[in-house]
Amino acid sequence: MNIRAGWLIAACFGAAACSDTVPQEEPDMASEGDAGTDAGAMDSAMDDAGASDGPTTYLAEVWADNWSAMYVGDVLVMEDSVPITTERSFNAEVFTFDATPPFQLNVVLKDYIENDSGLEYIGERNQQMGDGGYIAQLTDMSSGEVALVSNADWRCLTIHEAPLNTDCEGDANPLETCLSEISDEPEGWYAADFDDSAWVAASVYSEAEVSPRLGYDEITWNTDAELIWGADLQTHNTVLCRVTVR
Q1: Separation between Cα atoms, residue 188 and residue 74, nearest integer Å
Q2: Which pTM value belongs to this model?
Q3: What is the rounded CA–CA span in Å between residue 124 and residue 129?
Q4: How far apart are CA 205 and CA 230, in angstroms?
Q5: Interatomic CA distance for residues 110 and 107, integer angstroms
Q6: What is the pLDDT of residue 164?
Q7: How far apart are CA 56 and CA 144, in angstroms?
Q8: What is the pLDDT of residues 162-217, one digit of tens each?
Q9: What is the pLDDT of residue 223?
Q10: Contact between residue 205 and residue 133 where contact means Cβ atoms under 8 Å apart
């Protein structure tokens, strides 16, 4: 009762109808039962209002060698601004998005390859296998707390692996001699209830192994954020990863 009275007084101070020129009516004591019903309805409405805080705004910071896209469920919230067809693309992306936790975060990671051989600079003196790398962190902008970092908790699946026979790296016609294992994205993998039990934990790598550059140093990474990829930095060319943000 005291809380409700305080709320009415506060509302009255902000309303012109509460001036001294307006006569104040005495409450109808005979309708106490009805008043109790109205009070219960008000309490319920206030409880309902407090139960829905709405979506949270997140600041996302990512770096990829060479390319990444991020989805909340199946909704695209970021695609690398530099096309995957661009050689030597190592860049950071900083952006915001709104989502209501818990939600499913999904990323597609790609290393640049010239074709399905898994090689780059084909026909040039530096023909070689490339290598990947990815790091990400999400910050809750209302609290300033880091809500998620990339680490071995992420579940990943490699859908393009080449070359399986790495000794083809120097061949003149690598598309003919390099072996590959390529599959489509699993149907429905964006969904929160997708069964990823056959997927594996993301592999974690050191800065020395990935050699991140061009944008990586422009971001202050949380000490728990780790560089991740598939099980092989050089031959795993397209990797899908999933994690739940709570």
Answers
A1: 9
A2: 0.78
A3: 13
A4: 10
A5: 10
A6: 98
A7: 12
A8: 999 999 999 999 999 999 999 999 999 999 999 999 999 999 999 999 999 889 99
A9: 98
A10: yes
Closest-CA residue to 202 (of 225, 224, 228): 228
Structure tokens at 126: 């530096």
Give SS3 for 8. helix
CA distance 108 to 136: 12
Residue 116 and residue 206 in contact, taking contact as beta carbons nearer than 8 Å: no
CA nearest neighbour of 239 among 127, 137, 162: 162
**CA-CA distance, 166 to 210, in Å (whole number)?**
19
Consecutive 10-residue averages of pLDDT for the chain (246 residues)? 33 37 42 44 41 82 97 98 87 96 98 97 96 97 98 98 98 98 98 98 98 94 98 98 97
Contact 90, 212 (CB under 8 A): yes
Return the structure tokens found at 98. Answer: 């709104």
CA distance 8 to 230: 60
Helix (H, G, I), strand (E, B) or coil at 76: strand
- Residue with structure tokens 């149907």? 187
- Looking at residue 62, its amino acid is V
Backbone angles phi, psi at 120, to 5 degrees: -130, 160
Which residue shows structure tokens 């309303």? Answer: 15
Residue 189 vs residues 30, 88, 135, 209, 235: alpha-carbon distances, Å = 62, 29, 21, 29, 22
Please tell me whether residue 27 adopts helix, strand or coil conformation: coil
Q: Long-range pairs for 217-220 at CB < 8 Å and ≥24 separation?
A: 218/92, 219/61, 219/63, 219/92, 219/94
Provide the residue type at 177 as one letter. Answer: T
Tokens of 150: 């990339």
